[in-house]
Amino acid sequence: MSMANDVKMDWIDRTLSFINPRAAYERIAWKQGIRGYDSGSRAGNNSGWVAINAPAEQMNQGQRDIIRARSRDLENNADIAEAIIGTFERNVIRTGMHVQAKPIGKDGNEDEKLGKTMEKLWERWCRPENCDITGESTFGEMQGMATRRMIADGGILFVLSDNPYKNAEIPLILQMREVDEIDSTRFSYGAAGENRIINGIEVNEYNKPVAFWLKTITPDGLILGDSKRIDAERVIYLRKKIRPSQLREVPKLANTINRVRDVNEYSEAVSIKERVLACLSVFIKKAIPGGGVGRGSNIASPKDEKTGYAVKTLSPGLVTELMPGDDVTSVNPSGQASNAKEFIASQQRLIAAGQGLSYEAVARDMSEVNYSSARQGLIEDKKTYEMLQEYIKRHLCEKVWREFITQAVLADKLNIPDFFTNKEDYLNHDWIAPGSDWIDPLKEVKANAEALESNQVTLEDICAKSGRDWREVMAQRKKEIDFEKSLEDNNAGKK
Protein backbone atom coordinates (compact mmCIF):
# COMPACT_ATOMS: atom_id res chain seq x y z
CA MET A 1 0.00 0.00 0.00
CA SER A 2 2.10 2.88 -1.32
CA MET A 3 -0.06 5.60 0.15
CA ALA A 4 0.75 4.33 3.61
CA ASN A 5 4.30 5.49 3.06
CA ASP A 6 3.14 9.10 3.06
CA VAL A 7 0.68 8.87 5.94
CA LYS A 8 1.63 7.32 9.26
CA MET A 9 -0.49 4.25 10.02
CA ASP A 10 -1.97 4.04 13.50
CA TRP A 11 -3.22 0.88 15.21
CA ILE A 12 -6.68 1.35 13.76
CA ASP A 13 -5.28 1.37 10.22
CA ARG A 14 -3.22 -1.73 10.84
CA THR A 15 -6.11 -3.63 12.40
CA LEU A 16 -8.51 -2.60 9.65
CA SER A 17 -6.04 -3.66 6.96
CA PHE A 18 -6.29 -7.27 8.19
CA ILE A 19 -10.10 -7.26 8.37
CA ASN A 20 -10.98 -5.13 5.34
CA PRO A 21 -8.00 -3.99 3.22
CA ARG A 22 -10.19 -1.86 0.96
CA ALA A 23 -11.67 0.04 3.87
CA ALA A 24 -8.20 0.53 5.30
CA TYR A 25 -6.96 1.91 1.97
CA GLU A 26 -9.90 4.31 1.74
CA ARG A 27 -9.26 5.48 5.30
CA ILE A 28 -5.60 6.16 4.55
CA ALA A 29 -6.52 7.90 1.28
CA TRP A 30 -8.96 10.10 3.18
CA LYS A 31 -6.29 11.00 5.73
CA GLN A 32 -3.93 11.80 2.87
CA GLY A 33 -6.48 14.10 1.26
CA ILE A 34 -7.32 16.13 4.36
CA ARG A 35 -3.76 16.80 5.52
CA GLY A 36 -3.21 20.52 5.94
CA TYR A 37 0.41 21.28 5.09
CA ASP A 38 3.29 19.45 3.47
CA SER A 39 5.53 21.19 6.00
CA GLY A 40 3.73 19.31 8.74
CA SER A 41 4.31 15.89 7.21
CA ARG A 42 6.84 13.54 8.80
CA ALA A 43 7.32 11.53 5.61
CA GLY A 44 9.57 11.94 2.58
CA ASN A 45 12.15 14.70 2.83
CA ASN A 46 10.79 15.69 6.24
CA SER A 47 11.50 12.32 7.83
CA GLY A 48 14.76 13.53 9.36
CA TRP A 49 13.50 16.97 10.33
CA VAL A 50 13.18 16.98 14.09
CA ALA A 51 11.89 20.24 15.58
CA ILE A 52 10.60 21.06 19.04
CA ASN A 53 8.40 23.71 20.57
CA ALA A 54 9.69 25.20 23.80
CA PRO A 55 10.02 28.58 25.56
CA ALA A 56 12.74 30.81 24.11
CA GLU A 57 15.00 30.57 27.15
CA GLN A 58 14.78 26.81 27.21
CA MET A 59 15.76 26.60 23.55
CA ASN A 60 18.48 29.25 23.62
CA GLN A 61 20.33 28.65 26.87
CA GLY A 62 22.03 25.45 25.75
CA GLN A 63 23.58 26.96 22.61
CA ARG A 64 23.85 30.66 23.43
CA ASP A 65 27.50 30.61 24.51
CA ILE A 66 28.53 28.43 21.56
CA ILE A 67 26.80 30.69 19.05
CA ARG A 68 28.35 33.78 20.60
CA ALA A 69 31.85 32.24 20.54
CA ARG A 70 31.48 31.27 16.89
CA SER A 71 30.08 34.67 16.00
CA ARG A 72 33.08 36.38 17.61
CA ASP A 73 35.43 34.01 15.82
CA LEU A 74 33.92 35.00 12.47
CA GLU A 75 34.03 38.67 13.48
CA ASN A 76 37.79 38.31 13.95
CA ASN A 77 38.60 36.00 11.05
CA ALA A 78 35.93 36.22 8.33
CA ASP A 79 35.86 39.31 6.13
CA ILE A 80 32.19 38.76 5.21
CA ALA A 81 31.17 38.81 8.88
CA GLU A 82 33.17 41.99 9.46
CA ALA A 83 31.59 43.50 6.33
CA ILE A 84 28.12 42.91 7.81
CA ILE A 85 29.02 44.31 11.22
CA GLY A 86 30.86 47.27 9.71
CA THR A 87 27.89 48.06 7.44
CA PHE A 88 25.56 48.29 10.43
CA GLU A 89 28.05 50.29 12.46
CA ARG A 90 28.67 52.82 9.69
CA ASN A 91 25.07 53.34 8.66
CA VAL A 92 23.26 53.06 11.97
CA ILE A 93 25.59 55.14 14.13
CA ARG A 94 28.51 56.50 12.11
CA THR A 95 29.77 59.29 14.41
CA GLY A 96 26.85 59.02 16.81
CA MET A 97 23.32 60.31 17.24
CA HIS A 98 22.92 63.91 18.29
CA VAL A 99 20.32 65.25 20.70
CA GLN A 100 17.99 68.14 20.00
CA ALA A 101 16.62 69.45 23.30
CA LYS A 102 13.06 70.80 23.15
CA PRO A 103 12.08 71.68 26.74
CA ILE A 104 8.61 73.13 27.23
CA GLY A 105 8.57 76.19 29.48
CA LYS A 106 5.92 77.46 31.89
CA ASP A 107 4.16 79.34 29.07
CA GLY A 108 3.64 76.09 27.16
CA ASN A 109 6.10 77.05 24.43
CA GLU A 110 9.50 75.62 23.65
CA ASP A 111 12.28 77.25 25.70
CA GLU A 112 15.03 77.49 23.09
CA LYS A 113 17.49 79.21 25.43
CA LEU A 114 17.20 76.43 28.01
CA GLY A 115 17.44 73.88 25.22
CA LYS A 116 20.76 75.33 24.03
CA THR A 117 22.08 75.27 27.60
CA MET A 118 21.13 71.59 27.91
CA GLU A 119 22.79 70.72 24.60
CA LYS A 120 26.05 72.47 25.53
CA LEU A 121 26.14 70.72 28.89
CA TRP A 122 25.44 67.40 27.14
CA GLU A 123 28.19 68.03 24.59
CA ARG A 124 30.75 68.42 27.35
CA TRP A 125 29.52 65.32 29.15
CA CYS A 126 29.84 63.19 25.98
CA ARG A 127 33.63 63.50 26.12
CA PRO A 128 35.47 60.26 27.08
CA GLU A 129 36.67 61.51 30.45
CA ASN A 130 33.13 62.48 31.50
CA CYS A 131 30.81 59.74 30.21
CA ASP A 132 32.96 56.59 30.17
CA ILE A 133 34.17 55.14 33.44
CA THR A 134 37.34 53.97 31.65
CA GLY A 135 37.83 57.44 30.12
CA GLU A 136 38.37 55.98 26.64
CA SER A 137 35.15 56.29 24.63
CA THR A 138 32.90 59.17 23.70
CA PHE A 139 29.16 58.60 23.93
CA GLY A 140 29.05 58.38 20.15
CA GLU A 141 31.70 55.67 20.21
CA MET A 142 29.68 53.85 22.87
CA GLN A 143 26.72 53.85 20.51
CA GLY A 144 28.93 52.32 17.83
CA MET A 145 30.16 49.65 20.25
CA ALA A 146 26.57 48.88 21.25
CA THR A 147 25.62 48.34 17.60
CA ARG A 148 28.63 46.11 16.95
CA ARG A 149 28.10 43.98 20.04
CA MET A 150 24.38 43.57 19.36
CA ILE A 151 25.23 42.09 15.94
CA ALA A 152 28.17 39.92 17.04
CA ASP A 153 27.35 39.06 20.68
CA GLY A 154 23.61 39.59 20.74
CA GLY A 155 23.72 42.39 23.29
CA ILE A 156 25.62 44.64 25.68
CA LEU A 157 24.97 46.21 29.09
CA PHE A 158 25.39 49.81 30.27
CA VAL A 159 25.40 50.38 34.01
CA LEU A 160 24.39 53.88 35.14
CA SER A 161 26.99 54.59 37.83
CA ASP A 162 28.07 57.41 40.11
CA ASN A 163 31.20 59.14 38.85
CA PRO A 164 34.08 58.00 41.09
CA TYR A 165 36.42 60.75 39.89
CA LYS A 166 36.86 64.12 41.56
CA ASN A 167 35.65 67.43 40.12
CA ALA A 168 33.02 65.74 37.92
CA GLU A 169 30.60 68.32 36.51
CA ILE A 170 27.80 65.73 36.32
CA PRO A 171 27.91 62.75 38.73
CA LEU A 172 26.55 60.34 36.08
CA ILE A 173 28.97 58.02 34.28
CA LEU A 174 28.48 54.88 32.18
CA GLN A 175 30.09 51.50 32.61
CA MET A 176 29.97 49.14 29.62
CA ARG A 177 29.66 45.44 30.49
CA GLU A 178 29.74 42.42 28.19
CA VAL A 179 26.91 39.90 28.20
CA ASP A 180 29.42 37.26 29.34
CA GLU A 181 29.37 38.98 32.70
CA ILE A 182 25.75 38.01 33.35
CA ASP A 183 26.01 35.11 35.76
CA SER A 184 24.18 32.38 33.82
CA THR A 185 24.68 29.95 36.70
CA ARG A 186 22.31 31.97 38.86
CA PHE A 187 18.97 30.15 39.05
CA SER A 188 16.28 30.47 41.66
CA TYR A 189 12.67 29.36 41.40
CA GLY A 190 11.22 31.14 44.38
CA ALA A 191 7.93 30.48 46.10
CA ALA A 192 4.69 32.01 44.91
CA GLY A 193 4.97 35.79 44.84
CA GLU A 194 8.78 35.77 45.00
CA ASN A 195 11.12 36.77 42.21
CA ARG A 196 12.77 34.12 40.08
CA ILE A 197 16.32 34.19 38.71
CA ILE A 198 16.69 32.75 35.22
CA ASN A 199 20.10 32.70 33.53
CA GLY A 200 21.34 35.51 35.74
CA ILE A 201 18.32 37.81 35.33
CA GLU A 202 15.93 38.29 38.22
CA VAL A 203 12.32 38.70 37.09
CA ASN A 204 9.01 39.28 38.82
CA GLU A 205 5.80 37.34 38.34
CA TYR A 206 5.24 39.06 34.98
CA ASN A 207 8.75 38.17 33.71
CA LYS A 208 9.82 41.79 33.96
CA PRO A 209 13.55 42.12 34.81
CA VAL A 210 14.00 43.67 38.23
CA ALA A 211 17.71 42.98 38.73
CA PHE A 212 20.81 41.61 37.01
CA TRP A 213 23.37 39.33 38.64
CA LEU A 214 26.72 40.36 37.17
CA LYS A 215 30.09 38.74 37.66
CA THR A 216 33.16 40.85 38.41
CA ILE A 217 35.62 39.88 35.69
CA THR A 218 39.01 41.46 35.07
CA PRO A 219 40.11 42.14 31.48
CA ASP A 220 42.34 39.04 31.61
CA GLY A 221 39.38 36.83 32.52
CA LEU A 222 39.87 36.51 36.28
CA ILE A 223 36.57 36.22 38.19
CA LEU A 224 36.66 38.09 41.49
CA GLY A 225 34.34 36.82 44.19
CA ASP A 226 30.63 36.15 43.86
CA SER A 227 28.28 37.84 41.40
CA LYS A 228 26.59 41.06 42.49
CA ARG A 229 22.95 42.08 42.24
CA ILE A 230 22.29 45.35 40.40
CA ASP A 231 18.81 46.83 40.16
CA ALA A 232 17.38 46.85 36.65
CA GLU A 233 16.71 50.59 36.96
CA ARG A 234 20.49 51.12 36.88
CA VAL A 235 21.11 48.75 33.97
CA ILE A 236 20.46 49.32 30.27
CA TYR A 237 20.38 45.89 28.66
CA LEU A 238 20.43 46.14 24.87
CA ARG A 239 19.37 43.03 22.96
CA LYS A 240 16.90 42.19 20.23
CA LYS A 241 13.86 40.45 21.67
CA ILE A 242 12.08 38.31 19.08
CA ARG A 243 9.89 36.12 21.32
CA PRO A 244 7.74 37.08 24.36
CA SER A 245 9.39 34.39 26.51
CA GLN A 246 12.93 35.52 25.66
CA LEU A 247 15.07 36.97 28.46
CA ARG A 248 18.64 36.70 27.19
CA GLU A 249 20.35 37.70 23.97
CA VAL A 250 21.07 35.76 20.76
CA PRO A 251 23.64 37.11 18.24
CA LYS A 252 22.07 38.59 15.12
CA LEU A 253 24.60 36.65 13.04
CA ALA A 254 23.15 33.37 14.34
CA ASN A 255 21.07 32.57 11.25
CA THR A 256 23.97 33.16 8.84
CA ILE A 257 26.93 31.83 10.84
CA ASN A 258 27.14 28.51 9.02
CA ARG A 259 26.97 30.07 5.58
CA VAL A 260 29.60 32.68 6.42
CA ARG A 261 31.90 29.96 7.70
CA ASP A 262 31.34 27.84 4.58
CA VAL A 263 32.20 30.75 2.28
CA ASN A 264 35.24 31.60 4.37
CA GLU A 265 36.58 28.04 4.19
CA TYR A 266 35.70 27.77 0.48
CA SER A 267 37.65 30.95 -0.26
CA GLU A 268 40.63 29.58 1.63
CA ALA A 269 40.44 26.30 -0.31
CA VAL A 270 40.31 28.17 -3.62
CA SER A 271 43.31 30.24 -2.56
CA ILE A 272 45.29 27.10 -1.74
CA LYS A 273 44.35 25.54 -5.08
CA GLU A 274 45.49 28.64 -6.96
CA ARG A 275 48.82 28.54 -5.14
CA VAL A 276 49.25 24.88 -6.04
CA LEU A 277 48.45 25.57 -9.70
CA ALA A 278 51.08 28.28 -9.72
CA CYS A 279 53.79 25.91 -8.51
CA LEU A 280 56.47 24.33 -10.71
CA SER A 281 58.09 21.12 -9.51
CA VAL A 282 61.09 19.38 -11.05
CA PHE A 283 62.21 15.80 -10.43
CA ILE A 284 65.69 14.56 -11.37
CA LYS A 285 65.96 10.92 -12.42
CA LYS A 286 69.38 9.38 -11.91
CA ALA A 287 70.63 6.51 -14.00
CA ILE A 288 73.52 6.14 -11.56
CA PRO A 289 72.40 5.98 -7.90
CA GLY A 290 73.79 8.65 -5.63
CA GLY A 291 75.91 8.01 -2.60
CA GLY A 292 79.54 7.16 -1.98
CA VAL A 293 82.39 9.44 -2.89
CA GLY A 294 82.72 11.33 -6.16
CA ARG A 295 80.56 13.30 -8.55
CA GLY A 296 77.55 11.09 -7.93
CA SER A 297 77.47 12.01 -4.27
CA ASN A 298 74.61 14.19 -3.01
CA ILE A 299 75.80 14.36 0.56
CA ALA A 300 75.83 18.17 0.45
CA SER A 301 72.24 18.40 -0.73
CA PRO A 302 69.66 19.07 1.99
CA LYS A 303 67.02 16.41 2.51
CA ASP A 304 63.30 16.68 3.03
CA GLU A 305 62.45 15.60 6.56
CA LYS A 306 59.27 13.77 5.49
CA THR A 307 60.45 11.92 2.35
CA GLY A 308 64.19 11.68 2.99
CA TYR A 309 64.93 12.69 -0.61
CA ALA A 310 67.53 15.27 -1.50
CA VAL A 311 66.07 18.66 -2.30
CA LYS A 312 67.42 21.17 -4.81
CA THR A 313 66.10 24.64 -5.57
CA LEU A 314 65.39 26.66 -8.69
CA SER A 315 66.24 30.31 -9.07
CA PRO A 316 65.51 32.83 -11.85
CA GLY A 317 68.00 32.65 -14.72
CA LEU A 318 69.59 29.48 -13.37
CA VAL A 319 71.95 27.71 -15.81
CA THR A 320 73.56 24.55 -14.54
CA GLU A 321 74.91 21.20 -15.67
CA LEU A 322 73.46 17.85 -14.76
CA MET A 323 75.51 14.86 -13.79
CA PRO A 324 75.99 11.97 -16.24
CA GLY A 325 72.80 9.94 -16.53
CA ASP A 326 70.59 12.59 -14.89
CA ASP A 327 67.27 13.36 -16.54
CA VAL A 328 64.87 16.15 -15.63
CA THR A 329 61.10 15.70 -15.51
CA SER A 330 58.92 18.73 -14.79
CA VAL A 331 55.63 18.43 -12.97
CA ASN A 332 52.97 20.97 -13.95
CA PRO A 333 49.77 20.63 -11.89
CA SER A 334 46.82 20.15 -14.22
CA GLY A 335 43.58 22.03 -13.88
CA GLN A 336 42.42 25.59 -14.30
CA ALA A 337 41.55 28.42 -12.00
CA SER A 338 38.23 27.88 -10.23
CA ASN A 339 35.47 30.25 -11.19
CA ALA A 340 34.56 31.02 -7.59
CA LYS A 341 33.10 34.47 -8.21
CA GLU A 342 29.56 33.29 -8.99
CA PHE A 343 29.42 30.92 -6.03
CA ILE A 344 30.75 33.45 -3.52
CA ALA A 345 28.47 36.17 -4.90
CA SER A 346 25.37 33.96 -4.61
CA GLN A 347 26.28 33.05 -1.04
CA GLN A 348 26.90 36.69 -0.16
CA ARG A 349 23.44 37.56 -1.46
CA LEU A 350 21.86 34.97 0.82
CA ILE A 351 23.98 36.08 3.78
CA ALA A 352 23.12 39.74 3.21
CA ALA A 353 19.41 38.95 2.80
CA GLY A 354 19.48 37.01 6.06
CA GLN A 355 20.66 40.19 7.79
CA GLY A 356 18.12 42.41 6.05
CA LEU A 357 20.69 44.00 3.76
CA SER A 358 21.34 44.13 0.04
CA TYR A 359 24.23 42.33 -1.64
CA GLU A 360 25.77 45.65 -2.67
CA ALA A 361 25.80 46.94 0.92
CA VAL A 362 27.73 43.91 2.18
CA ALA A 363 29.94 43.08 -0.81
CA ARG A 364 30.56 46.73 -1.83
CA ASP A 365 30.11 45.53 -5.41
CA MET A 366 28.25 48.06 -7.57
CA SER A 367 29.14 46.52 -10.93
CA GLU A 368 25.61 45.25 -11.64
CA VAL A 369 23.45 48.17 -10.52
CA ASN A 370 22.06 51.28 -12.15
CA TYR A 371 20.61 54.38 -10.54
CA SER A 372 17.13 52.92 -10.02
CA SER A 373 18.25 49.58 -8.60
CA ALA A 374 20.91 51.22 -6.43
CA ARG A 375 18.35 53.66 -5.04
CA GLN A 376 15.81 50.91 -4.38
CA GLY A 377 18.46 48.84 -2.60
CA LEU A 378 19.47 51.87 -0.53
CA ILE A 379 15.84 52.48 0.46
CA GLU A 380 15.41 48.88 1.63
CA ASP A 381 18.72 48.95 3.51
CA LYS A 382 17.73 52.20 5.17
CA LYS A 383 14.58 50.56 6.55
CA THR A 384 16.79 47.97 8.23
CA TYR A 385 19.10 50.66 9.63
CA GLU A 386 16.19 52.78 10.86
CA MET A 387 14.77 49.88 12.90
CA LEU A 388 18.06 49.53 14.77
CA GLN A 389 18.46 53.30 15.02
CA GLU A 390 15.06 53.57 16.67
CA TYR A 391 15.99 50.84 19.12
CA ILE A 392 19.27 52.58 20.06
CA LYS A 393 17.42 55.88 20.44
CA ARG A 394 14.67 54.62 22.72
CA HIS A 395 16.55 52.03 24.75
CA LEU A 396 19.95 53.71 25.17
CA CYS A 397 20.10 57.37 24.20
CA GLU A 398 16.74 58.39 25.65
CA LYS A 399 17.34 56.63 28.97
CA VAL A 400 20.79 58.17 29.33
CA TRP A 401 19.46 61.63 28.42
CA ARG A 402 16.69 61.47 31.03
CA GLU A 403 19.14 60.39 33.72
CA PHE A 404 21.66 63.00 32.61
CA ILE A 405 19.22 65.94 32.81
CA THR A 406 17.92 64.73 36.17
CA GLN A 407 21.47 64.51 37.55
CA ALA A 408 22.31 67.93 36.09
CA VAL A 409 19.34 69.50 37.92
CA LEU A 410 20.32 67.79 41.18
CA ALA A 411 23.90 69.04 40.74
CA ASP A 412 22.62 72.62 40.20
CA LYS A 413 24.04 72.73 36.67
CA LEU A 414 20.57 73.52 35.35
CA ASN A 415 18.40 76.05 37.16
CA ILE A 416 14.89 74.64 36.77
CA PRO A 417 12.96 75.16 40.03
CA ASP A 418 9.82 73.29 38.91
CA PHE A 419 11.68 70.47 37.14
CA PHE A 420 10.24 67.60 39.18
CA THR A 421 6.75 69.09 38.95
CA ASN A 422 6.84 69.28 35.13
CA LYS A 423 9.56 66.72 34.47
CA GLU A 424 8.20 65.35 31.20
CA ASP A 425 7.92 68.83 29.66
CA TYR A 426 11.53 69.67 30.45
CA LEU A 427 12.75 66.28 29.24
CA ASN A 428 11.14 66.74 25.81
CA HIS A 429 13.75 66.12 23.13
CA ASP A 430 14.52 64.34 19.88
CA TRP A 431 17.47 62.44 18.44
CA ILE A 432 19.01 63.11 15.04
CA ALA A 433 20.40 59.94 13.49
CA PRO A 434 23.22 60.07 10.93
CA GLY A 435 21.89 60.74 7.46
CA SER A 436 22.57 58.88 4.24
CA ASP A 437 24.37 60.32 1.24
CA TRP A 438 22.59 60.79 -2.06
CA ILE A 439 23.22 58.71 -5.15
CA ASP A 440 22.26 61.60 -7.45
CA PRO A 441 22.42 64.86 -5.42
CA LEU A 442 20.83 66.97 -8.17
CA LYS A 443 17.71 64.81 -8.39
CA GLU A 444 17.39 64.63 -4.61
CA VAL A 445 17.80 68.39 -4.17
CA LYS A 446 15.15 69.13 -6.79
CA ALA A 447 12.76 66.63 -5.22
CA ASN A 448 13.30 68.14 -1.76
CA ALA A 449 12.80 71.68 -3.08
CA GLU A 450 9.50 70.77 -4.74
CA ALA A 451 8.28 68.84 -1.70
CA LEU A 452 9.17 71.76 0.60
CA GLU A 453 7.49 74.29 -1.68
CA SER A 454 4.30 72.20 -1.84
CA ASN A 455 4.33 71.73 1.97
CA GLN A 456 4.65 67.95 1.71
CA VAL A 457 7.68 67.99 4.02
CA THR A 458 9.33 70.42 6.42
CA LEU A 459 12.87 71.70 6.56
CA GLU A 460 13.26 69.71 9.76
CA ASP A 461 12.39 66.51 7.88
CA ILE A 462 14.87 67.24 5.09
CA CYS A 463 17.70 68.12 7.47
CA ALA A 464 17.02 65.07 9.63
CA LYS A 465 17.50 62.80 6.60
CA SER A 466 21.02 64.14 6.22
CA GLY A 467 21.71 64.01 9.98
CA ARG A 468 21.63 67.78 10.57
CA ASP A 469 19.80 70.12 12.92
CA TRP A 470 17.52 72.45 10.92
CA ARG A 471 18.03 75.26 13.43
CA GLU A 472 21.78 75.10 13.06
CA VAL A 473 21.38 75.06 9.27
CA MET A 474 19.17 78.16 9.28
CA ALA A 475 21.38 79.97 11.79
CA GLN A 476 24.49 79.24 9.72
CA ARG A 477 22.76 80.33 6.50
CA LYS A 478 21.73 83.61 8.14
CA LYS A 479 25.35 84.24 9.18
CA GLU A 480 26.53 83.57 5.65
CA ILE A 481 23.86 85.77 4.07
CA ASP A 482 24.56 88.63 6.53
CA PHE A 483 28.30 88.31 5.94
CA GLU A 484 27.79 88.35 2.16
CA LYS A 485 25.60 91.45 2.47
CA SER A 486 28.21 93.20 4.64
CA LEU A 487 30.89 92.53 2.03
CA GLU A 488 28.66 93.95 -0.69
CA ASP A 489 27.96 97.07 1.40
CA ASN A 490 31.71 97.54 2.08
CA ASN A 491 32.52 97.24 -1.61
CA ALA A 492 29.75 99.69 -2.50
CA GLY A 493 31.08 102.19 0.07
CA LYS A 494 34.60 101.98 -1.34
CA LYS A 495 33.33 102.82 -4.81
Describe this structure in words.
The model is unreliable at 1-6 and 294-299 (pLDDT under 50). The protein has helices spanning 11-19, 21-34, 56-60, 64-77, 79-93, 112-125, 128-131, 139-152, 257-277, 341-354, 359-363, 371-410, 423-426, 441-453, 459-465, 470-494; strands at residues 98-101, 155-162, 172-177, 196-198, 201-203, 209-214, 228-231, 235-239, 281-286, 326-331, 429-432. Helices cover 44% and strands 11% of the residues. It has a 4-stranded antiparallel sheet with strand order 4-5-6-7, with no helix packed on it. A 3-stranded antiparallel sheet has the order 3-2-8. Among the domains are: 2-51, no CATH class; 280-331, no CATH class; 438-495. Helix 1 (11-19) packs antiparallel against helix 2, helix 4 crosses helix 5 and helix 5 crosses helix 12 (371-410). The longest helix is centred in the C-terminal third of the chain and has 40 residues, at 371-410. With 495 residues, the protein is α+β, with helices and mostly antiparallel strands. A hairpin with a 5-residue loop joins strand 5 and strand 6. It has 16 helices and 11 strands.
